[in-house]
Each structure stands twice: as structure tokens, then as C-alpha cells.
Amino acid sequence: MDLLQRLRRGLGATRSLFGERLSAAGWKITRETLEELLLASDVGPDVAETLGKEFERAGGKGDIAVGGELDWLQARVQQMLSADGAEAGRGRPKVALVVGVNGTGKTTTAAKLAGHARGSGRRAVLVAADTFRAAAIEQLQSWGERVQVPVIAQRPGADPGAVVFDALKAALAHDVDDVIVDTAGRLHTKHNLMAELEKVRKVCARAVPGAPHEVLLVLDATTGTNGLVQAREFRAHAGVTGVVLTKLDGTAKGGVVLAVARELGVPVRWVGVGEGPEDLLEFVPEVFAKALLGGIA
User: Is the pTM of this model over 0.70?
Assistant: First the structure.
């Protein structure tokens, strides 16, 4: 399957929700219908109201063709998702920190990112900087074997900053292209742990100028807009440059992508639509908008 087909399958629950709601409304799309639809998919009240107002204005000015309401919405969604599409930083090695709370799929996402880099012909390594969670290192090592990417690790309980520093020096010595660091899951309210994350960022900069080149926040899409509170804190303390939305295939809250883009001001980089390594998909706004809304009517 191509990217569009895989995304459309992954967004099946959200697309079904849209179809059911629109069918119940007799496929007559008004501002009220549109806002209810968007809220049901968890875009958040601000985004729903903004799009509702724009829809009303566009219809009043005759900018929406008869029967073209979903086409208008698809184009507008694409525009909103493209607004913050700044490129990630560059470096060699390129250092990416993977951060987030426990249970979002952070470790598996780190491994899938490394597998994607390897599949693109780049030399990648994984760094086990989650030294506190029981079996975290073993989990990453197991995934490393699965995606055929080496894992740099030290003993459980080791200082994460020291682990990262030694790993980056080894990556420099061995001409590695990508270093993906799996950090410990932490609640955004635990200030000591957030401070530790800031320390890891500083260690990266000492070892590799300009690092980390990307800080990816992993959010569980099934939590919908509730995850935005966590996200704001990580953005403030960890310098988040992009978001990975996991478990999109298990929720009808696919609209949360819009809430993330609008309220966080950082781009969505990847979306997870399944358990396999191949189910982490690069986020392309045009394809996502088409997968979400195209062909529903």
C-alpha cells in the first residue's frame, strides 16, 4: 500500500465517525454540523470554532461550490497542518531525543525511527538513556535486534547524561549518521525529572555542536486533547521541535492532529498507525488531509 492507503486505513475509526455523523445529518453540512463533527474527532473547541466561522464566511461569499463543503474542509485542514512545517535541524551525526510520558509508545517509536533511518541507507544507533524503568534497556535492545540497529547501553541506574555523552562520542568515532536517544518517560508535573531532561540536552550540545537537532515528543492519540497539557510543559522544558502521534489506528480522535499543530506551534513529524516497524509513517499534510476527508461522501 502507498502512504495514502496506509493512512486512510489507520484513520478508519475517525473516517467512520465522520461518515456516521454526516449521514445522520442527511449530508447537509452547516456550520453547526461541521463544528459538532470536528469536536467529536477531538480537534478542540478553538480549532472547531475557527473553522466554523471560516466555513460560514466562505459560504456567505459563495467561495464554496454546491456539494463542495468537504473539499473546502480538506483544503483548509491541509493549510493548517502545513503552517508549521519547519525542517528539522541538521548535523552529523544527527541527534534526536525521543521524549514523553510513560505509556505513549516512546521506546517503540525510537526503535521504529532508527529502523526508518537504516531503511533509508543511513547508519543509525539507538541509545538507552532510560536507565530507571525496569526492563527498559532490554526492551530497546530487543527492538534494536528487530530493526537491525545497534543499541548503546550501560548498566541500569546509570546517569542518563553520562550514557548519552559516551554514546555520542562513540557515534562520532564510528561515523554514524543518526543517533536516536530513548529517554525515560516522565510526568510533566515532576519538575526534577524535567530538569534532568534539560541536562541531557546540554550534554548533547557539549558532545556534538548544535545537538540535539530534533526533540520529538511522543503523544498517545487516544488521549486526544488531554495530552496537550503534557505537551506544553515538554515544549517549555525540553525544547520540543516535533510531535509523533501514536495509536491513531485505535481511536476516532484523529482530529487531535489539528489541535497539536494549532496550539503547540510545532509540526507533527510522524504518525503511528499500527504495531509493526513499518507502521510509523512520515507525516505529509496533503496526504493526511486527503486520508482523513477524501472520499467520505
Answer: yes
